[in-house]
Design goal:
alpha/beta; 19 helices; 13 strands; globular
Amino acid sequence: MRLTILGGGGFRVPLVHAALLADRGEGGVTELVLHDVDADRLAAIGKVLAQQAEGVSGAPRVIATTDLATALSEVDFVFSAIRVGGMRGRQLDERVALAEGVLGQETVGAGGVAYGLRTVPVAVEIARRVAELAPRAWVINFTNPAGMVTEAMAAHLGPKVIGICDSPVGLCRRVARALGLDPAAVWFDYAGINHLGWLRAAWCQGEDVLPRLLANRDAVESFEEGKLFGAEWLRALGAIPNEYLHYYYFAREALAGAGDGSASRGSFLLDQQRDFYADPALPMWERARLEREATYMAETREGERDSCDLDGGGYEKVALALMRAIARDERTTLILNVRNENTLPGLPADAVVEVPCVVDTNGARPIGVAPLTGHALGLASELKAVEQAAIEAAASGSRAAALRAFALHPLVDSVTVARRLLDGYINVHPELSYLR
């Protein structure tokens, strides 16, 4: 089986490769193709993968290329993990937003809109090329903002593109652990859109055990989301939100924690990447990876992240479980980003939502879950309108649609600010020249 990773020079690629090494055998990946526009990054990651594979029999053959047609030739699965503008682009996204007094996080707020406006045109062109050159291939999208990008690609690939995120999987695992249960024995009622979802129930042997957890302050505050939101607020909600909802429920605190942008997450990762790519080696990559995990969403926490919270869902684990289910017809259930159809009433049928899905050789099919209600439906509808305005802007070059995407975002509090944000991003990102 042939797997291509677009963005193959990216920092996360060794995680996918390590998962492939652990999944060798009949029906596994025999060829791993890395595609990137930067040959030096490809060479750096290739060096790390070679060190990972030392002494491992049956490791996939690794091929590196900067030519997209070559990367898509004879491919069965495509993992799309691109970063348009690189980490420098993320740093600029954060700084422009913070200069206007609004959040610039890469998938939330103004920064997420700017990232989407840069990324969607490239993702759509990739989708067109896949449809032309590799029509039998399945595309698994890692690229953020995952919901927006997957939705834009689905217009060309239909159900053959599926978006993934490890946040819901990590949340469900942590909730099960806090309850002393095996995650495989629990049905998690989770729904929303990417980076904006809620765990509303956890069913085990016919009982929703989530109220039991919410009633126990010590148990709730023993894991990441409980520490982030606090037991009192989670009891008031009657649900456990995706960690990214911290930026909405605690917007003032999140903005204060971001400072002036000089020490932003993008700046930290940019410096870290420069060090790694200057002298790439497996031990240095592993140290940098652990540092990334330990400092993830550090601006939202007091103190260090607990080791028990470092075990998220793992993008690579979710992606490989999805790929195995399709390639080997190993039926499984995963929380994925797929077209809504009629799964969540109140959201457009063509909108990409994040819900539990049954996966087999025919792809991913959303499972009926409780509808979003009240503020959850309102917030998800508001953010979906933002995403669809950004997709429209990317497709048409419409400045008006781009302005709507910024101005309608609940974390951007003024049309005047939205207009300045749009101009500010156009000025610093060459990729947005199509909006002039």
